[in-house]
Amino acid sequence: MSDNTEPNIATADALTLLLHNQHALGAAIEEITKWLSENGVGSVAANAMAAMETLDANAQAITDAIMRLRQS
Questions:
Q1: By CB neighbour count within 10 A (0-12 exposed, 13-18 middle, 19+ buried), where does 68 fall?
Q2: How far from 11 is each of 36, 57, 66, 71, CA to CA, in Å?
Q3: d(Cα 72, Cα 68) in Å, to the nearest integer?
Q4: Rounded to an integer, what distance in angstroms lies between the CA atom of residue 29 and that of residue 45?
Q5: Taking Cα atoms as reference points, which of 66, 70, 72, 68 lies closest to residue 3?
Q6: What does the alpha-carbon distance between residue 12 and residue 65 come to, in Å, rounded to a whole number?
Q7: DSSP string, 5-71
Q8: pLDDT tens digit string along 11-69?
Q9: Is the whole model's pTM more than 0.70, yes or no?
């Protein structure tokens, strides 16, 4: 085991909090997207969906980084 355990744990903890924030933002964007779609603003809703896809892709990368840090 490396001697970087404490910094790795602190980094993983910080990334976990950021990931939780990212999930909260995604949920908020999803609600806004639903409202936009229901109120006839489809083009804006489509842009919001694209933003959600980016959040999802980045969330997976952050999750992978967290797991690597916690395993080291």
A1: exposed
A2: 37, 20, 8, 12
A3: 6
A4: 9
A5: 72
A6: 8
A7: HHHHHHHHHHHHHHHHHHHHHHHHHHHHHHHHHHTT-HHHHHHHHHHHHHHHHHHHHHHHHHHHHHH
A8: 999 999 999 999 999 999 999 999 999 998 888 889 999 989 999 999 999 999 999 99
A9: yes
